[in-house]
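Tutorial sheet, problem 5. The two components below are modelled jointly, 556 residues in total.
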Amino acid sequence: MKTIKTHRMFDGEVRYIRHDSTACSVPMEFTVFLPKEALAGENLPVLYFLSGLTCTAENFTVKAAAQRHAAEEKLIIVAPDTSPRGENVADDERYCVGKGASFYVNATEAPFAANYQMFDYVTEELPALIDREFPVIEGARGVTGHSMGGHGALIAALKKPGFYRSLSAFAPIASPSRVPWGQAALPLYLGEDEEAHRGYDATFLMAEAKERLPILVDQGTADNFLKEQLRPELLEEAAKTAGHPLEIRMREGYDHSYFFVQTFIEDHIRHHAKALHN
Amino acid sequence: MKTIKTHRMFDGEVRYIRHDSTACSVPMEFTVFLPKEALAGENLPVLYFLSGLTCTAENFTVKAAAQRHAAEEKLIIVAPDTSPRGENVADDERYCVGKGASFYVNATEAPFAANYQMFDYVTEELPALIDREFPVIEGARGVTGHSMGGHGALIAALKKPGFYRSLSAFAPIASPSRVPWGQAALPLYLGEDEEAHRGYDATFLMAEAKERLPILVDQGTADNFLKEQLRPELLEEAAKTAGHPLEIRMREGYDHSYFFVQTFIEDHIRHHAKALHN
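Model answer (structure tokens):
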């Protein structure tokens, strides 16, 4: 694990880190924000932020303005990349498939299977690394994300009961198996079997979830992707059927950008802090 | 004046605007943040943020996280570009001269004089446009900026007594006529006469300032440019000699990035709001 650069902010530190990933078989980069208490060695909870299509950790780190609130609430924030990277990593010309578009699945199909083991990466390898390298409170772990990363957060928590103690999402792709972005990507990662796609679709996972972790979702009404790609109504329907606690807050006039994320990140950080500091 | 795009944030709106500049003889772009009260027609003060070398308005707008505080303090924020732009605009291969590096002067030398009339642009043309097009409180106008834009803020206020009611800067180039960046750029814009350079140097302007507007400066101690390019000690010295009220806060471990700006922007916005809402 190598720290590439460090910036002080809000008395804490943002670090850009590179490490060799076993799951993805390439070097991976992530950022971590350490509040001043963590720098002084105090154990703190960790919130994972999963980013959306085309992003790296950079977008969240520079645009979400999360660190102010994380410093106040004493949370470490970890932001991984959205896919494996590198010359030899399979890609696709569409922005919703390949690099920057892993959908956080473990791919089973060539050529993607070689590196696209992002579910294992974000829910196993990276948390193990973080737990080993930083002062964390054991098990005090939350997950959130934006768009494709909102989907990533939902499936991470739904597929790993007990592993996360708090969950939220910004404008998540609620049901990738039923929208064009996911229908472009999932067959290339997982093959044609629709059952495999549903294994990474929160609206299907919810029916058989072994845990009912409350979900907070913010969604802008002026989001260009709302009706065709995000479809929060499918999540709402699934939660209702399953009896899963879900609060979707429709935000009038907000779009899909980080200006939207920046506006509501405080609420999400407080939501996680409340669960993780208990 | 044309609004290119709009994003809702903190119940207000960020607008990206393009207009034909008379001063610079090319189209110019700026961003404006309008708190919800301004959207409802209430007159508010305006804070101008001038950006640094290589930047456009985008850096400040997406990275400074100023809008939360501007919304709370009911301030409109206007962020202009750092130079004229376009194929026919003179440039230089060095990042500290030409596009993105106007130093906010009115150039007198060819080929820059044709478009680089940035002092007039940011202190006359743009404020006149803002006053005409947005709900502003007449004369309630502050100016701040980062690095080259911190220098821009200082000279704007010092050269136009009475025009701004509040002033601050983040890591300003305190004395461009005495540091390498300015010594590369100013002769190309203003010719070899050092008197002309000093006419845009806060440390020289301060001696003969007709107004003593208090200045708030934040400066990181881990800023790579501190000793060679920024030199806040020269501003401190000039202020002491002139009896100009100046508070320089040296921030331990902070660098020159927007992570530094984001950390201290709240203090600056409160500094301006206090002066502008009186």
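Marking note: Chain A touches chain B through 21 residues (CB under 8 Å). Full credit if you identified this.
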